[in-house]
Design goal:
The chain has nine helices and 13 strands. The strands form three sheets. A seven-stranded mixed β-sheet has the order 7-6-5-8-11-13-12, sandwiched between helices. It has a four-stranded antiparallel β-sheet with strand order 1-2-3-4. The chain has a domain at 55-223: Vaccinia Virus protein VP39 (Rossmann fold, 3-Layer(aba) Sandwich). By secondary structure, the protein is an alpha/beta fold. The chain has helices at residues 8-11, 60-65, 87-95, 108-117, 134-139, 165-174, 192-202, 232-243, 250-260; strands at residues 13-19, 26-32, 35-40, 44-50, 77-81, 100-105, 127-131, 145-150, 153-154, 157-158, 175-186, 207-211, 217-223. Helix 6 (165-174) crosses helix 7. The radius of gyration is 17 Å and the shape is globular.
Amino acid sequence: MGLLRNTPRRIGRFISDHWGDGGLPQVQVVERDGVRTLCLDSNAVQSSMRIAEPYQLEIAYTRGMMCFLLFTKTAKHVLAIGLGGGSLPKYIHHFLPQMKTIVVELNPAVIKAARSQFFLPDDDDRLTVLQENGAHYLAEHDECADVILLDAYDGKGMADELTSQAFIDSCYRGLTEHGILTVNLWSSDKRYDTYLERIQTSFDGRVLVMPTGKPGNIAVFAFKGYAGDLRWVALKERAKLLSATHKIEFFKFLDSLRDYNLHNPTRLVV
């Protein structure tokens, strides 16, 4: 979920709103210039979809989070904590048929909006959406995913329950042997350093950070075990292969990985 903040009625035509249960944030959907946007509490853009290309990833940070593909060729099971408009699960379902995705989302209004306004498919043998607390789910499911996608900001930030050391530890346990945790963080969040330190602690320092462009979203990749072949020659070859089938700027993101992480002339160092 992105960092962009606007008032929905200013950024486009108001389409609909749904109210969450139990004091959960209000969901609003607006549309402008062919782009449909999901907002929470009228002040935070969570997801955007270009209506002419509903299965592509409109916002740069979502394309950045898909860079977990640079580090694994074998991932088959994905767990997404936080749904938003469903951009990432929808993309995986459409373009990566070898992967199965479970999405855990607390707010039923978010699920309703994603399904009714953002082309999120119905559940099938490759996609399951659960209306449940993500922290509670992970506490009960060890080694359940090859990739965990954590994208759980709302208009006020990320819930304490999803940023505690105990929760990040549960992410570690929830991954398979060589699994990858991929987290969307805001660089402007005053607790950004704390969140990153907790990820580094749980994953014994096997962490890469990657700015994904304005307005300040950072994709964090944390590796439970082997991080894959991190030689530049191998990463560039992987980026070339992926670029043939995905509209994602993998080479640009590789430059960002090089600029913001420890490396030498031949490889990234984790």
